[in-house]
Amino acid sequence: MPSLKEVKIRITSVTSTQQITKAMKMVAAAKLRRSQERITQIRPFAEKIQGLLRNLSAQQSDGQAWYSQVREKKNVLLVVISSDRGLCGGFNSAVIKATVRRIQEHYNGASVSIMPLGKKANEFFAKRGYNLVNDHFGIFQELNFSNSSKVSSDLMERFRKGSFDHIEIIYNHFRNVATQILTHEQFLPVQQNDQQGTQDTDYIFQPDRQEIVNGTVPKSLHVQLFKALLDSNAAENGARMTAMDKATENAGELLKDLRLTYNRTRQAAITKEILEIVAGAEALKG
């Protein structure tokens, strides 16, 4: 049985940890409210502009536009969105495992490069010798549309030049505080709507269809990546809030056990002292 001093030290340590996890939960909750507002505001616009682009692209007769060129997947780029910090449960491990599994199952014969957006993904893939395009892994230090657009512009330029034949985004989609859905989206080439069973919208184009589509493509792709980053950021805060809540509860359960152990140890020590006193008194009588 541990000594009273050891149990008291553990109680103090766990109490301090519980205070930290409770504070981190409150901070994550505040950040979650802000990030949830941002992703809620951008989702309808992102879905609308992507649907518009796919509809217009499906109506293109030549199919030779740079953004819709479907090539053999020899050089593939996976944009992996993680967090910069840990203590968020299985948030980072889920997206990293999904990336490794996706490479093994779908791109085993291709030359695969990783663009990590987040320090945790960058650290993982760098240590394991993956081919990295890690120019933008610190984007979460200042997450805004301007910085996100620099990344998406870089991706578009690499695809247009032929450096990569296929670009895909892997991230955690935010559903609610307790649920993050692992998602992989095709970034380039732009996916077109299946024309079978799809009724084309009758648009009036001015000045012409091609010019409008070419102007819409960069905007749509900028918004697509920014939405994925906001989704991941909200999912990260939700995962961290949940993880810290569970850690606080576990610390509370541990404190109950430690206090019970402390009381038992203290009672045993008192009983031992009483027995020693009684034994000493009996020895004096004898």
Structure characterization notes:
This protein folds into two domains: 4-13 and 244-278; 21-193 and 200-242, Pyruvate Kinase, Chain: A, domain 1, CATH 3.40.1380. The longest helix has 77 residues, at 209-285. The chain has a five-stranded mixed sheet. With 286 residues, the chain is an alpha/beta fold. The model is unreliable at 195-199 (pLDDT under 50). Helix content is 61%, strand content 13%.
Net shape: elongated
Total beta-strand segments: 5
> According to CATH, what is the topology of the largest domain?
Pyruvate Kinase, Chain: A, domain 1
Q: Strand fraction band?
A: 5-15%
Strand order of the largest sheet: 3-2-1-4-5
Low-pLDDT stretches are 195-199
Q: Could you name the CATH homologous superfamily of the largest domain?
A: ATP synthase, F1 complex, gamma subunit
Amino- and carboxy-terminal Cα gap? 33 Å
How many domain regions? 2
What's the Cα radius of gyration? 28 Å
Q: What is the level-2 CATH architecture name of the largest domain?
A: 3-Layer(aba) Sandwich
User: What level of helicity do the residues show?
Assistant: 55-70%
CATH class call of the largest domain: Alpha Beta
- How confident is the prediction overall: mean pLDDT? 89
Structural class computed from helices and strand pairing: alpha/beta
How many distinct helices? 5
> Can you summarize the main beta sheet?
5 strands, mixed
SSE succession: HEHEHEHEEH
